[in-house]
Amino acid sequence: MSWKETAEPVLTRMPTVARPEGHVPFKRKLLWTAGILVMYFFLTNVTLYGLQTTTQGGDFYGQFRSILAGASGSILQLGIGPIVTASIVLQLLGGADLLGLDTENDPRDQVLYQGLQKLLVGVMIVLTGAPMVFASPLLNADPQVVQQLGIGTRGVEGIIFAQIAVGGILLLFMDEIVSKWGVGSGVGLFIIAGVSQRLVGGLFSWSGLTPTSSDGFIAVWIGILTGSTELPGSPLTSDGLSAIFLGQGMILAMITTVLIFVVVVYAESVRVEIPLSHARVKGARGKFPVKLIYASVLPMILVRALQANLQFLGQIVHSQWNGMPAWLGDYGDQGQVTEGLFWYLKPIQSPEEWMWFVGATVTADWWQVMLRIGVDLTFMIVGGAIFAIFWVETTGMGPEATAQQIQNSGMQIPGFRRNPQVIEKVMERYIPQVTVIGGALVGLLAVMANMLGTIGQVSGTGLLLTVSITYKLYEEIAEEQLMEMHPMMRQMFGSE
Predict the structure, then answer these.
(1) Which terminus of the chain, N or C, has fewer Cβ atoms within 10 Å?
(2) Bridging pattern class, strands 330-331 and 271-278
(3) Which of 129, 124, 115 is nearest to 76 (CA)?
(4) What is the pTM of this model?
(5) Distance (Å, whole) CA 249 – CA 264
């Protein structure tokens, strides 16, 4: 008996969002998408009951918050982390062909794959959330709630874990609703929402309205120009220039943010177009675009999620192993790694972590900082290329799958015999090379954005994801509008 026959009774009974019967009007898709977005913002403001407001470790996931799309101390504490981690496992298993599932042609295997994904997400919620609550200082139980309920610290911690588990499950089904009934994907929508919120705050926030927040870019420069905000020195001095570009003036962060927007939009438009013609309809022609960022920026989520899980592992080991050797990791009072292996594996997040030559407070030696930068660059560039390949091969974007899609659509490459093997050989000239180059380029851009800083302290990966996902979302909305105006287009694209 194969594993599919054994697991089928469980996987097929997994709760799922029903697919729409027939075409969903564009306006209804927008309503579903907007409704899920409102629900997401609502859940990010639902505070965990029984949680101590001030914890020793603070927001450990703060550096990854923009890509995990969660909110510290809320019911969405885990964000999309379990979904992404489950996707990594499925990507690896599918890439190695260990599952034996044909999700392209077999409806039964599609159901099994979706059920397996939900099961893995549940497992990852437990594996990520349980240590976070029970074995680390990240989410401490409030002593007053412990005393009021009389169920002990472990009992209150169990209540906290149940809440974040419910939040993780809700986010899974919200993603499924957007994918089936809305526009785009829920994961992409949540990332856009989280990053956009931080970008707007970084631009327009004003401490006069919210005392707990710092002034944004516009408020700071209004203060500098009106004289209400004083610089440490004249703009012509080194201290003044450092404050304007790296400090409170945030000029370098603004330049980096704008540059990332421009570069990603340009890279999305760079493509190799392979001409196509219809085998039976004379004069019917088209083009198959192979974009520079062919695998999209989404594989970067997998890379950063892997880094986040490594850092979380180090945090757990430190909290549970009193005799943890210093070479493995040395942690400060706030639970942040300061040296050792896990410090070298920690991604660079801001200019203050490496620009010792302009006065930044860097405790490590220059060669240690450079080694850490080298590890981060290698991890992101090599990891970006590897995960891009896995993404392309497991999502039906590889040469073989693409050739079969072109063949099934009745198209062919002019001057070549109409045969899937022939089309595949042509695609192999472009897709693998572009996939590796695009993945490595995205990894490089993510690291450089982190090193130079961005508005709202958004991570480079989060900014890249937001720009790329927003660009693709715009293309999907334009396509949906086109098919809504011309119903026959839905049959051509296979949407009906």
Answers:
(1) N
(2) unpaired
(3) 129
(4) 0.77
(5) 25
